[in-house]
Amino acid sequence: MNHTFHIPVLGLGYSIDTPLKVAKYGISSVLSIVDDELTERMRKFHSAANDIEYVLIKKEENDGRARRITAYLDLIGKLVNEQFQALIKEPFINGAAIHIYFELLPENSILKAQYLQMLKLDESAEKEGLQQQLRLQMKPGNIDVNIMSKVDKANYTADKESLGNDYTDALAAMRGFGNSTLSSSVVISAGLNPRLYTYMENCIDFYPDANGQIKKKIILKVSDFRSALIQAKMLAKKGLWVAEFRVESGLNCGGHAFATEGLLLGPILEEFKQKRNELREELLAIYHAAILHKDISLVTDPVLKFTAQGGIGTATENAFLLNYYQLDATGWGSPFLLVPEATNVDNQTLEALTTAQQDDYYVSNSSPLGILFNNFKNSTIEQQRMQRIEKGRPGSPCTKKFLSTNTEFTELPICTASREYQRLKIKQLEATEPDPAQFAVKFEAITEKICLCEGLCASAYLRNNLLKPKENKAVSICPGPNLAYFSKQYTLKEMIGHIYGREAITFKFNRPNLFINELHLYVDYLKKDLGAQLHDLNAKKTKYFEKFRAELFKGINYYRELIPELKLQTDIATQELQQQLQKAEEKLKLITQVLDPVRAQG
After folding, report:
1. What is the pLDDT, as a whole number, of residue 576?
2. Alpha carbon separation from 552 to 189, 323, 513, 576, 579 (Å, rounded)
3. What is the 3-state secondary structure (H, E, C) of 400-413?
4. Strand positions, DSSP E, 152-253
5. Do residues 89 and 95 touch, judged by C-beta distance below 8 A?
6. C-alpha pair distances (Å), 437 with each of 19, 118, 209, 394, 434
7. Lower CB count within 10 Å: N or C terminus of the chain?
């Protein structure tokens, strides 16, 4: 690709049509295919906007979920191709959009250098020839999709009969992508799903064709080397090649947060850097054997890429990650929530984000999946949640049921954010918890859950005037904590200029280096977790916390040793970084000293 960054998936609705906004300029982005109702409504919207016939696909139809997803992806692919073909045919005259494509490229791009050379030439055959060469090298950005492997509930007929494993949410979504005409990648996140991996063997586009090209590639979003190796080996044994490891910070990211056991981004990337060749050779050996068994010929070995994302905030940080860790690209997610040209954020939420303070961003237990979730205190769904509690009606109506996994009170799974579940759970709590203080804590834990199915789509509907009468307009948004430093709305040109160092965005507050930011997030996370477990700290829990602490200390020492490289390649103030590491180390010692007496007792 001509760009060295991508826009990761942003919730359900925020990046649902981002490819239509940025792909023509060569920028890759990721959209979620969790919600087939959202894809169907957006297909209707974009069909009408482009004067294309639209025929409704009902969810209840045979394989309706997969067919809806396929139809939407095919439409996005068609529209992006039309946009791009129109762009490359434009003449290089003043005001033409084709100039934007090249102006957005990074400064060290060979293609951009050729473009700048072309601009210096007077009208001539040489200039026309160079313009034609430029057009031939232009590529649209990828239309990649995201599937959360854990969002994989079973589905049932109207008579409550199971539709079977092939129709679970994740497998149907994968089938929707597999049947599409896209030549792009699926980003698999949220951990390992063996059933999904086995199902992917059925998709021919995941295998190389006669020319050695793989039409549909696999990207694994991972938070550490070990999980990357385990999942990639499992896929390789099935003849499925992982084309990219997308390493994401466990806590300094948006959306669901998958905290490691104290492993920090720097040491994790260092392990990938040191073991990348070893990793590739091990996977290739497994892959070759599997492909041979399937009677598929390999023209050439497939490519393996490494990228990183989560909390990157400056051009120098971006360049350091690319250069020092030998990455192929980086991901910039949350900052693009403040770029209306790229994402769907309603005006009220945009205003709230631009004026937010640092403590408005926090890691919560709001997700019905039971996974940590980056939340925003000033979202309208948080306001609605509190209002419902005050009225004595906590919880949300549950219509989409994508996160319905709990069978504590019912035969069929229900969602822990639903009004039905919270009513039953609170009733149980009232009968079993006499202590007022403990009751309040447990009540908050029950009612903290929010409806993500509706909340993460509402902004896209509001932005595009698609909200139906009586439909919930409360917005849930899940930016990473790094967004706290960004102070206003930005144009696409401004944000990309910031990424590549052409222009620096002014931050609201003094912003530490991304490694320091993540370190403090982990220390605070450990403090909170340890505090919650102190009353029944046993040997197993103590061992876990000791490992967590040890990894953080190792991370701090790693960063101390990295300072010369950081100083060499960035504008970081060495003394300030030393002080920040010292401060984090002292804080870590203080909060974990409670472990020492437990360990001494055996």
Report:
1. 86
2. 24, 24, 17, 19, 16
3. CCCCCCECCCCCCC
4. 185-189, 217-222, 242-248
5. no
6. 49, 72, 63, 19, 9
7. C
Residue with tokens 């039905």: 420
Please list, in sequence order, all residues whose beta carbon lies within 8 angstroms of the beta carbon of residue 412, skipping any fewer than 6 positions away: 156, 160, 404
Computed from CA positions of residues 43, 49, 55, 59, in that sequence, does the dihedral angle turn out positive or negative? positive
Using CB atoms within 10 Å of the CB of residue 251, give its burial: 0 to 12 exposed, 13 to 18 middle, 19+ buried: buried
Terminal Cα distance for the chain, rounded:
56
pLDDT tens for 83-136 read 999 999 999 999 999 999 999 999 999 999 999 999 999 999 999 999 999 999
Segment 510-517 mean pLDDT? 94
What are phi and psi for residue 510, nearest 5 degrees?
-65, 125
8 Å CB contact between 105 and 113: no
SS3 395: coil
DSSP symbol at 570: S
Contact between residue 130 and residue 115 where contact means Cβ atoms under 8 Å apart? no
| Residue-level pLDDT at 191 | 84
- Which amino acid, one-letter code, is at 89? K
Res. 163: pLDDT tops 80: yes
Q: How far is residue 468's CA from residue 472's CA, in Å, rounded to a whole number?
A: 9
Phi, psi of 309 (to 5 degrees): -155, 160
Q: Provide CB contacts within 8 A for 87, sequence distance 6+.
A: 24, 97, 98, 101, 138
Angle (deg, nearest 10), helices 574-592 and 539-569? 180
The single residue listed with the structure tokens 């804080």 is 587
Q: Which amino acid is at 36?
A: D
Cα dihedral 100, 103, 108, 112 sign: positive
Residue 245: pLDDT above 90?
Answer: yes
Residue 264 CA to residue 551 CA, distance in Å, equals 8
CB 366 within 8 A of CB 453: no
Cα(401)–Cα(414) distance, rounded to whole angstroms? 7
Q: What residues pair up with 218 in beta bridges, in sequence order?
A: 186, 242
Q: Could you tell me the two tokens for 225?
A: 């080397």
Distance CA(67)–CA(56), nearest Å, equals 11
Question: Locate tokens 């909200």: which residue?
Answer: 467
Label the pairing between strands 28-32 and 5-7. Answer: parallel
> What pLDDT does residue 535 have?
80
CA distances from 543 to 97, 430, 459, 530, 602 (A): 59, 35, 43, 12, 11
* pLDDT tens track for 261-302: 999 999 999 999 999 999 999 999 999 999 999 999 898 999
What 3 state SS string does 90-103 have? CCCCCCCCHHHHHH
Over pLDDT 70: what percentage of the chain? 99
d(C-alpha 249, C-alpha 215), whole Å: 29
- H helices present in 225-330, as ranges: 225-236, 265-293, 315-324
Write down the pTM of the prediction: 0.95
Longest dimension (CA), the chain: 87
Q: How many residues does the chain have?
A: 602
